[in-house]
């Protein structure tokens, strides 16, 4: 009988792990801070790569379900100059290795594949304590505690489990994005809709200014307005005053083509600031009995199109490692961590050597891992 696994976080990584453990008959419970599956809009499209994310989906036995949620045509990709000139335009011919899905739909198929009760909602971990011998005590915001012999931190960028393994904390990566949404764009914002096309669009400017946008279902344009500025610069903007903040951000894009600027000025939602943080690239730790990390908790990086894919693969690989060595959990964790450290360091290295030479202005344009020519 395998030792029960306690997972913190029902993001894509934690759920992929739970699913693979379930397939191998290993008992698992996932504790999630959010109060329900619909507590927070999951937002955004993810392209799931054939060399990592899709391998995890396969290990989870969910390939058919995955194909049923792929958004056909959304792998199209365009690169525009700031004046609107099309520099690169690639149609989606259905043969690409990075199909696009909605993050919420992907999370849903993982959740639906687990026995009821596997995920405990409204279970926010507030503290952790080593008890020795590989055992750990978890404290929850609801006042309860729990002791576990095998703990996995799948709790994202600001992991509460991470301090058990390492003192590393995320630092500001130098770039933030402001998110906007334009609804029913084909009829209400046709020029912007045409500029974005059927999939994703990147427009690079000078001085760390860039716009990345993609078409979501229902002709929604979801844009990430990238600005390379220190956090103080953003702190001086009042994001509670949506109109003023929008106008201030738009000013930074004076001189850009109107159809690109309208992705800022015509937003149907209040602009949402998202600073990017990162752990040191190649970050690792010494083995600590009874606990490990996966996904952003282990190797948070500025968005480079790999984060969700790596989290999925970490989860699947950890599940497989535990299933392969039911009598030697420490050997399983060591094997998993060595492969995970290698994988995440390689991903960080590849993106640091991207076409922009790792310059900060590559960040927002790199959100889905598509590279400008
Ligand atoms: C703007 C933006 C765009 C991105 N675009 C892409 C993309 O196109 N492609 C891609 O591959 N990646 C993308 N990423 C990266 C990707 O979102 C992450 O790498 C991925 O979500 C990591 O998954 P995870 O399961 O490790 O963590 P998360 O998805 O962060 O899940 C962690 C879960 O843990 C829960 N949790 C947190 N703290 C606690 C606690 N104390 N107690 C209990 N539960 C807790 C959270 O509520 C959450 O459900 C993007 C990121 C950003 C910010």
Automatic annotation (TrEMBL):
Amino acids binding NADPH: 40
Domain (FAD-binding) ranges: 3-339
SUPFAM superfamilies in alphabetical order: FAD/NAD(P)-binding domain
Location of this chain's protein in the cell: Cytoplasm
Catalytic reaction equation(s): a tetracycline + NADPH + O2 + H(+) = an 11a-hydroxytetracycline + NADP(+) + H2O
Pfam families named among the record's database cross-references: FAD_binding_3
Keywords for this protein: Cytoplasm, FAD, Flavoprotein, Monooxygenase, NADP, Nucleotide-binding, Oxidoreductase
Top-tier EC class: oxidoreductase
Chain sites annotated for binding FAD: 47, 103, 296
Broad class of the protein's primary localization: cytoplasm
Entry similarity comment: Belongs to the aromatic-ring hydroxylase family. TetX subfamily.
Stated role: An FAD-requiring monooxygenase active on some tetracycline antibiotic derivatives, which leads to their inactivation. Hydroxylates carbon 11a of tetracycline and some analogs.
Complex and partners: Monomer.
Name under which the protein is recorded: Flavin-dependent monooxygenase
Organism expressing this protein natively: Streptomyces polychromogenes
């Amino acid at each position: 009988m395998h030792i029960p696994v306690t997972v913190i976080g029902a993001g894509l990584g934690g759920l992929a792990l739970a699913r693979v453990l379930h397939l191998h008959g290993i008992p698992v419970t996932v504790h999630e801070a959010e109060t329900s599956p619909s507590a927070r809009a999951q937002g955004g499209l993810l392209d799931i790569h054939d060399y990592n994310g899709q391998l995890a989906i396969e290990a989870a036995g969910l390939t058919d379900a995955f194909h049923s949620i792929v958004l056909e045509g959304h792998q199209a990709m365009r690169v525009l100059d700031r004046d609107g000139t099309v520099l690169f335009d690639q149609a989606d011919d259905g043969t690409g290795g990075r199909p696009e899905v909605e993050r919420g739909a992907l999370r849903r198929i993982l959740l639906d594949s687990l026995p009821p009760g596997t995920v405990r909602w409204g279970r926010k971990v507030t503290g952790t304590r080593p008890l020795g011998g590989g055992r750990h005590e978890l404290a929850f915001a609801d006042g309860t505690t729990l002791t576990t012999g095998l703990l996995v931190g799948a709790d994202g960028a600001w992991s509460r489990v991470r301090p058990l393994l390492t003192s590393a904390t995320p630092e500001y990566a130098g770039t933030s994005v402001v998110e906007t949404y334009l609804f029913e764009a084909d009829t209400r914002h046709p020029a912007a809709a045409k500029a974005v096309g059927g999939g994703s669009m990147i427009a690079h400017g000078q001085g760390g200014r860039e716009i990345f946008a993609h078409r979501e279902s229902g002709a929604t344009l979801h844009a990430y307005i990238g600005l390379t500025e220190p956090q103080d610069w953003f702190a001086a903007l009042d994001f509670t005053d949506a109109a003023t903040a929008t106008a201030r951000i738009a000013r930074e894009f004076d001189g850009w083509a109107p159809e690109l600027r309208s992705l800022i000025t015509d937003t149907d939602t209040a602009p949402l600031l998202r600073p990017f943080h990162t752990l040191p690239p190649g970050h690792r730790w010494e083995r600590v009995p009874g606990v490990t990390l996966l996904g952003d908790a282990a190797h948070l990086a500025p968005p480079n199109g790999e984060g969700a894919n790596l989290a999925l693969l970490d989860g699947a690989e950890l599940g497989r490692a535990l299933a392969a060595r039911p009598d030697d959990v420490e050997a399983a964790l060591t094997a998993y961590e060595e492969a995970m450290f290698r994988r995440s360091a390689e991903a960080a290295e590849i993106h640091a050597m991207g076409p922009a030479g790792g310059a900060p202005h590559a960040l927002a344009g790199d959100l889905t891992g598509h590279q400008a020519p």
